[in-house]
Design goal:
By secondary structure, the chain is an all-alpha fold. Helices cover 59% and strands 0% of the residues. The chain contains 16 helices and no strands. Helix 13 packs parallel to helix 15. The longest helix is centred in the N-terminal third of the chain and has 16 residues, at 8-23. The model has no long low-confidence stretch (mean pLDDT 91).
Length: 278
């Protein structure tokens, strides 16, 4: 028998609307925000006469599959997903029915799944598959990459091949977060720095800094000596210093459009918050 779908937030909002109507002048807007948050938590343990149980009990009594189907129903009806539903899913941990949502292609549903599953080991291989798939747009892939950056070492073998595809930007970002050094990964990061679009060079320099292997220093020193813009210079200088090097040579960027724009926007400070230097 299918569980009756109930929009608990609608019930709560009606109750709060009545309270606000009667007592609106008694508190400031900031005070009301705190009151509403506390009332919502109390509401979770309040018996709803219509079903004879509290919102938390309602979700606690659902099967794993029931929780997932209810999540889908909220999104199908374009309703805010109940916090109490998310609480119950998170309390149970990652289960097969939740993982199965990563096989879906609906963007909003998959986003919810990623947020609830996080970096769970059972999802990592699927995340790598999602990065390689044409079924997902950049929003989903950005979310997946953000998760995998926190567990990059565990997906190294799945991510390395993606550096040779159009999904290389995601792969390089993830590889830059490896804790255990891998020559193949370093080679890919260095190759991107040396051969990539010059507009992306500051980004790739940042990846080398994040990766943390000082073998990149000679290449960074060589690049910083070239005729480059102010932003590229700053990023290269940062990368050099992050890897234990130093670059103290004075450079004049007074006529550089990037320098002028940054100085104007920052009121005399650079993109790192310090005084702008030539």
């Amino acid at each position: 028998m299918k569980t009756q779908f109930i929009d608990f937030d609608e019930i709560f909002n009606k109750r709060m609307a009545d309270m606000l109507e009667r007592h609106a002048e008694e508190h400031t807007e900031e005070e009301w925000e705190d009151i509403i948050a506390k009332e919502y938590q109390k509401f979770g343990d309040t018996v709803i006469r219509k079903i004879g149980k509290t919102p938390r009990q309602y979700f606690e009594e659902m099967s794993d599959g029931g929780l997932v189907e209810t999540l889908k129903e909220y999104l199908l009806q374009e309703l805010p997903v109940s916090d109490f539903l998310c609480e119950e899913i998170e309390r149970r941990g990652v289960f097969p029915e939740l993982l199965s949502l990563l096989q879906e292609t609906d963007e909003e549903l998959v986003h919810y799944a990623i947020n609830l599953i996080g970096g769970d080991r059972g999802a990592r291989k699927r995340y790598a598959e999602m990065l390689a798939s044409d079924d997902y747009d950049e929003h989903i892939k950005d979310a997946v990459a953000d998760v995998l950056k926190g567990c990059a070492d565990s997906v190294l073998e799945e991510i390395l091949p993606l550096t040779e595809t159009e999904n290389s930007p995601y792969a390089l970002e993830i590889l830059s977060k490896l804790k255990n050094k891998d020559e193949r990964a370093f080679s890919k990061l260095l190759q991107a720095f040396l051969e990539g679009d010059k507009r992306d060079m500051p980004l790739y320099a940042g990846y080398l800094a994040s990766y943390g292997d000082d073998k990149a220093l000679p290449y960074l020193y060589e690049e910083i000596e070239k005729d480059i813009g102010y932003i590229a210079f700053q990023e290269l200088k940062y990368a050099i210093e992050a890897l234990g090097g130093e670059y103290a040579k004075s450079r004049d960027f007074s006529a550089d459009p990037e320098y002028i724009a940054v100085k104007k926007a920052g009121g005399g400070t650079d993109i790192f918050g310090g005084k702008t230097k030539r």
